[in-house]
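Morning - pyridoxal-5'-phosphate inputs below, output right after.
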Amino acid sequence: MRFPYRIHLSKPHMGEWERQFVDEAFSENWISTVGRHLNELEREFSEYSGLPSVAIASGTAGIHLGLKLLGVKEGDEVVSPTLTFAGGCNPILYERATPVFVDSDRASWNIDPALLTDLLERRAACGRLPRAVIVAHLFGQCADMDPIMEVCGRFEVPVLEDAAEALGSSYRGRIPGTIGEVGVYSLNGNKIITGSTGGLLVAHDEKRVTKARFWATQARDPGGDYLHSELGYNYRMSNIVAAIARGQFRVLETRVRERRGVAFRYQDAFSELPGIELMPQAEYGVHTNWLSCFLIDEERFGISRDRLISVLNDANVEARPVWRPMHLQKLYLGAEVVGGAVAEDLNRRGICLPSSSSLTEGEQTFVIDRIREAYSYVTGANRT
Ligand SMILES: Cc1ncc(COP(=O)(O)O)c(C=O)c1O
């Protein structure tokens, strides 16, 4: 049975504010990387996060600027979770630095604080500490920041929080991205709120944000002359993107509620099926469930994760695996990895189901029914 149209994994969910702000940008003719909506977005985001912010072209650009702000240079080591999206760690290579990957913990699926502690202690013992640690908050859930900040603080290694997937979540009442030295958010089209693309960078030190804005606008020195004494980038957000993002930002809380609603409806629906389990929801914060991720235990569920993705695809439903660990990517073969078996297991058994905040009850029921059917088909077949 096929759904009449594709049910996507995570699609944009627009309202009226976005259109109004874009119309304003058109009528004011600020179709550029300067304009009122850019300034307003930064002001509103700073109010939300409590930190100075700069609006940039993408989350990836933000990670790149963040690493530069933390002084990462050729030959430095930078720690990153191995379970992450490429945009969250490729900027390490932009700066010709060396990634060291760390496995996930099972409780949050994010970087394992115990393995990170062990790594930093070993590095400190030989006097070769990494220049920075990237901590990603995956699928809408924060990493366990207290032990991470403790060990990084102890060895004075700065933390760059990759909160690309975690806008709207919290860690012990705090906003992810505001706990480490620098925080980065993505407004990519598949995220909980979007500008079609775009990103935001925050830092505790205002000078860092000013510097990031300078680098993001081609590092043009003050004055009318085209003087560039440093290497810059074309990383600034467009005023049109900012207009869309401002509209989206107004409904962030509602979108969080809706995404959580989708995840828990799946969880309820699967409560009687063995071998399909919602990603853990750590007690220390609010998990937005940006993506509804489940682990499939093939022995108990009856079919593998890959087969389930293929069954759903045949029914016109988009489902995807959990991120492929970086230490398994061709680009990073040979990179040092601490552990790795947990990330490999999450990648092998993890499935992301349609999670849009606009997912209708009818669409979700269709997805649930296909999964129930897949389970009863195999278990029925096994009985005969
Ligand atoms: C964990 C993570 N880091 C970084 C990025 C990069 O963000 P962008 O797509 O806005 O460049 C993404 C997603 O897109 C992500 O999921």
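Note: The chain has a mean pLDDT of 97.

O.
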